[in-house]
Amino acid sequence: MSDNSIEVNNARHWVELICDGTSSSADLVDLCTQNIDQTEPTIGAWASFDKYKAAEQATALDYIRKSGEPTGRLHGVPVGIKDIYDTADYPTEYGSKIHAGYQPTADSAVIEKLKEAGAVIMGKTVSTELAFMHPSETRNPHNPDYSPGGSSSGSAAAVAAGHVPLAIGSQTNGSVIRPASFCGVYGFKPSRGIISRRGALATSDTLDQVGLFARDVGDIALLADVLAGYDAADNASYIQTKPHMLAGYMSDAPVEPTIAWLDLPYASKYATDAQQGFDELLEALGPKVERLPVPKTFAALLPCHKLIHEYEIVRCLENEIENHWDNISDTIKPTLTHAKSHTAEQYQEALEIKAAAEQWFHDFFHDYDAILTPSALSEATTLESTGDPICCTIWTLCGLPCISMPLLTGATDLPIGVQLVGAFRQDDRLLRTTRHFINQLTEAT
User: Fold this and answer.
1) Catalytic residues
2) What is the CATH architecture assignment of 1-445?
3) Residues 111-123: pLDDT tens digits?
């Protein structure tokens, strides 16, 4: 990991320095560029990076500040963008040679929001092929012999290495929370519908969700605030007021938050070191966490997610499958082939199971503020795999907000994330609980 990575950690602090003239966007972009030059040959986090484009943006933003014009909430701060979001200034290749050299003519909704907030679009970070399961070339910054996770591999690795203080990813199963866990950074997937997906590669209209990476929870909250908003072009977007993330994170809980640990149907899969870490965590927290069984119906949620994802991905990727089959990796071909066997009746049944689970969580969060759970089954896997997303599947299926915190370490000294899951569209409440949880854990240990 870059020796300078600590210097680019706090985006909010940099905004203050840039806006009061103590430092400049050019200084921060130069520092990030130095870090990229130092470690990118080993890590491979970037699909497209142009230091001159980044420097030009920084110079323009510094001129805006000096001219006394309004500045945005991320003024001058570099952000890495997963290479599935359309960018008019950079190619968008979806991690696939099928789309090599594709240059969009318009920005995605996420990029529009970032530019409005004064962010520097630092470049495009590596995505796994078509944001699916084939491992990318990116390496884990903590140890290049290990995976950074998928599919938002480049975004998580870029933040962990200090290439940028903030990055954008996406999650259809576990593609934000798992890479955050493997790379030892904070990862946040807001509630489905808070951030528009317009202009992003679609692999599942039901399940695709935008996600964020940072080295600081407050930065995650600020970034989520910047990106949140209604967009009629995204059918998951909703028009009512969004949670105020940073205000929620900075607020004090009016009463002691209630946190639950659920005995989930895949608990036997936790690696020994992960299980030991969580046993110690639960012991340290004691009665502050209530251990609960789950209904037997939870066992149906994992195959339910799988069916919905597969049923929709072959429709979203119809062009690639029908016209470019030879340019799809052998890793994902069997899944895409099998996916064609799902019937409309099976798909509809899966949607009904999903709706029932959403109602269960709606009722559950009347009594609990958050669910405590592992972010991943283990520390980072070897490079042959991006890891199992199972620790994220249920929450993604139900569109719930979740955050991964880099709080544990595995047997080979690689990070293991601790995940908190909150109530749908109550992301501010989850972030408030996150701050309280971290403070409590610090006191307990």
Assistant:
1) 82, 151, 175
2) Alpha-Beta Complex (3.90)
3) 999 999 999 999 9
